[in-house]
Input
Amino acid sequence: MNQTNTLILDFEKNIVEIEAKLESLKLLAEDESVDISQETTRLKQKLERQMKLTYANLTPWQKLQVSRHPQRPHCLDYVNGLIEDFTPLCGDRFFGDDEAMVCGIGRFRETSVVVIGQEKGHDLQSRMKYNFGMAKPEGYRKAQRLMDMADKFNMPIIAFVDTDGAFPGIDAEARGQAEAIASSIQKCLQVKTPIISIVIGMGGSGGAIAIATANRILMLENSIYSVISPEGCASILWRSADKVQEATAALCLTAQDLRKFGVIDEIIKEPLGGAHRHPDQIIQKVGDAIAKHLKELSASTGEELKKQRSAKFLAMGRNLPEN
Output
């Protein structure tokens, strides 16, 4: 089902103009004496050609804009679309609950799974509730608690990564943010059950890798995964926000770059026009990709899964392709 696009990205102006003409034709269609079928067909064909041309040639900066689109499906959209009988589990048993980190158990296509993910929210009220997807230490400790549960009951872990990074506030640092992230990475490396992580939008810094140290890492076609935000990179290297587009290109943060470097395992192609235009389609595609990788990983023993995961990350950066 298509979702109305209320945010117009700067490179989508030609697309939006054609869509506006189609909407005008719909109003004319109410007058049965006017035949608009030929013009509607022509405009739809033109729209498809324009979208293919536009999205086939996106720059890294434009991909970043798509990954940040507020109407892009978020963690709970995937949970609602893919996980049956989802039961949220709250609290880290030390300090409290962190709503930015969604954790729970449910069934994915008849398989009991543990789900971990970062939720951003879709409007101002929900974004504030979920702290814009930026977890605090209790969020990562909650994730570790669920990883232990998955390990104990031999349940695969599905992680939906979508965060600008861990919360940088003083209260988070006071409660051990760095230690919580490091411990979460360590826990990922210790469990003997399959872990599949999917970067569905933003994969920012340690906040992302804390739940993405997985056997299989998948990325949506227009998502990004980086050690630092382009804005942060520009402020450090150039001391200027004007260099953000150069920083975006230099970071090599697109799914295509990271697949080439061997950081991720698969790129999930998005529907024409991006995931925000056809959320139902991309949720189904993500589900099919998870099912495929779960089937492949189910042939390995727990010890093999653990060793494969460690070897995967130790090998990163050792044999980079020449540019």
Summary: The CA atoms of residues 99 and 129 lie 7 Å apart. The beta strands are 84-88, 101-108, 111-118, 157-163, 195-204, 216-220, 224-226, 266-268.
